[in-house]
Every structure is written in C-alpha cells, then in structure tokens.
Amino acid sequence: MENTAYDFGLVGLGVMGRNFILNVADHDYKAFGYDLDPEKVSALIEEGGDKARVNASGDISVFVNALSLPRKIMLLVPAGKIVDSVIESLLPYLSPDDIIIDGGNSFFTDTDRREAYLQSKGIHFFGAGVSGGAEGARKGPSIMPGGSREAYKEVQPIFEAVAAKFNNEPCVAYMGPKSAGNYVKMVHNGIEYGLMQLTSEFYDLLQKGGQLNNNELHKVYTEWNKGDLQSFLVEISAKIFEKKDDLGQGQLVDKILDKAKQKGTGKWTSQNAMDIGIPIPTIDIAVSMREISALKQERVLASKKYDRGTMELEKKQILIKKAEKAMFFAFIITYAQGMHQLRAASSEYGYELRLASIARIWRAGCIIRAALLEDIAQVFEKDKDLANLLLAPLFVEKIKDSVGAARELVTYAAENGIPMPGLFNSLSYFDAYTSERLPLNLIQAQRDYFGSHTYERTDRAGIFHTDWS
Ligand code: 6PG
Predict the structure, then answer these.
(1) pTM of the entire structure?
(2) Given a cut of 90, is residue 308 above it in pLDDT?
(3) I need a surface site. Which of 10, 34, 276, 437 has the fewest CB within 10 A?
C-alpha cells in the first residue's frame, strides 16, 4: 500500500544525512530516508525508533512514493557527478512542482546547470549550503538556501525548525536566486580556511616564541574565546590542545601529521575571487599553506639546508596579549575579504545578496560562527551598500586598536623565521587597501614600455602611449 504521509525526504544516509533527518524528525516532521547501502537504511530506522516518524528504504520508488506532494527531497551526497546521477534516478518518479534541494558543497555553476535542466522538466531545484558538520546537522546547522523563492516557501518552515537558533532567530534565510546558496557557502568555506590558518599559525607563534605547552595553549585559547576572538574555531582549538592521546603519552595534537587535506571549496573561493577581480589574499594563502603542508618530504629536506639560528624568546604574557589583538585584526580582515567577494559576486551573478542577513545566519550553527559576526551584521544593516568592512566606523576603531600588535608580530615572526603568512597577508592587504597611492603606476609604465598597453594620467583625461626608447 502506498504511503504518502512523509513530509521530507533525504537521499544519502551518511553521517550528515542521518543526523539531518533525525533533526527534522525531532521537530515533528515525518521524514523518509533513502540510501543504496542497506546497512545505512537499517541504522537510520533503528536510531529513529518509530517508523511512523523516521523511515527509510533502499528502493527509490518506495522512497519517492512515501512523500507528500509537492515532494521535498534533500540530497546530502558528495558533490560532483553523484548529484547528477541521483537526480537522474529520481526523475522518473517525480511529479511537477516537486522540489529537490542539494545540501552538499556543490560548485555553484553546477547548481545553475542543474536548476535550468530541472526547470525544463517542471521540477524545482535549489542549492542550499549547510554548515556545522555532523553535530550541526543533528542539533542545528546554519542553512544557506538559494534558488526559486516560491519553492523555498514550501521548505521554509522545515528549515526554520531544524536550523540553529541565535537569540531565537533561526540561522537560515533565503539567500537569492540561482546558485546564491552554494556561492555563499563556498565563500563561508573560504573564510573558514582563513580563520583555520590563522588559529594554527598563532599556535605556532606561541609555541616557538613563547614556549607555551599544550596546557598553556589550552588556557590561552579558552581565555581568548571569552573575549573579542569568541568563535567556534578558537573554542575547539582550546579543546584540541588538552585532548589526551589514547594510543600513547601526552596530547594527541602533537602526534597528528602536519599535512592538511582539502576538498576544494577554499580553492574554488580563491579561483572565483580571481575571476571576478576581488582580492582575498588571506584566504588565498590559507589554500597555499595546505598545499605547502602537503609537501612534507620536501619540507623535511629543505629544513636541513637552512638554519634559522636561535629563536629570540618573548615574554609569555606580552606575546599572548599581542597575539590576541593581532589575531583579532586578521580575523576582521578575513571576514572583510569574504564579504567583499560576496558583494561583488552579488552584482556579477545577479544574486541580490543581503550581507547583513548572511552575517546573521552565520552567528550560530556554522563553522565560522563568531562574536564578530554580530558587529558585521550591524554595519551591513546600517549601510547595505558598504564596499568593505574596513570602511565602517565601528571597524575603523577595532582595526586602529589592533593593527599595532599585528605589525609588531609580523616583524617578530619575520626576524625569527616563524611562518605566519595569514597575518602577513592580512597586514599587507590592509596597508595596500588603505594606501591612497600605490606604486602600480610603474607597472603601467612597464606595460606600456614593452607592449604599448597604454596608460592613464593623473593630471589629464584620456588614454596615452609613449615611445619609451
Ligand atoms: C561546514 C564545512 C564543511 C566542509 C569541511 C571540510 O561548513 O560544515 O565547511 O562543509 O566540508 O570543513 O572542508 P575541507 O575538507 O576542504 O577542509
């Protein structure tokens, strides 16, 4: 007998999918899951406890027929070709106006292609960025949906119920048409890369320059998490420093190989920023650092060829104080670059993004949640056309208060050979962005010299070329 009682369908019962569907069921929506792996199907049924509330099947027709119309089917499967093949397998069973939501980290142009394809078949499709990892999926993620506004209205109550809450406000909002949701999530991940790089290079600084051990690092990051730097990534770093190693002596963090992997969203952020002409050097270098980290063997070889000399140690308390300010400075710069990219992408791709709303839904649930987002939301609320965070009076004050520490630590790190490229790039970006005149007039002259590329002048209008020889 056909059962059409379920409100929400979910394809892909891996860790994220299973947690998300259980979250939906916790909010009084009946949910049905689908996965080809029978073990995942039975694991969900068992964990759900009541089949009338959470059910699952490995048979796609059973799955689709169990859902009420218009069907709301979310995919939580790895980005790439799998999304296309899942869509193809669903299509024969769907009815007009059914909605497919891609909750994975799909590349935004793939989302545009899929939306156009499904529109021709009468099916709504939208990409929704979901952040917060497994715990977020279970207890409340931050959700960034984009696509057809009409279709969004159908899933809005479910998303608002399952999303993380900040002061009772759900961390979900309609981002804009087409692939706006995936784009915003991509930039979220770029910012995530920047903040992760910064939290790790300040850990290096405190270890090398102040000889802090893991217990001290735990205390420092715990304290930082009570002040300006309050954020999920600082909070979990504090916890990581104190985690004991189950397989040996000491803390686990010391045994973890220093090669960071990546699935591509940070790289996409950088690549697309280049495409649309927006500088995001803190995020770029965070991607490059993962690449440098992967060159472990070469790094080991090179380290033997270049002696750094003796480290000039700093007094712990002084170093910790400066580091807190300098990291805050670089956090602001990272968000400023990400928001700048979102603003430019909004006009480039017609996303109609509201930056204040994006900052608001990032205040809880997602990986880059931080106290700073409250201020970011506020300044974009006040001035929705703000070109860059660095121009907002509130941030001018914060930067003035922290840039001195950033300069001192850049000098110290350079003198002692401590790699802090996230901080260095943040400072250089700041210095360049706030320079009335840059030396790029020389670049224009060189271009005209060797390639007759022409230049503009500061004292009269028009396009000029000079015979330099
Ligand atoms: C999130 C995360 C998540 C991402 C991981 C891994 O918001 O929950 O951004 O979507 O997949 O952070 O990313 P990398 O493997 O590229 O580090």
Answers:
(1) 0.97
(2) no
(3) 437
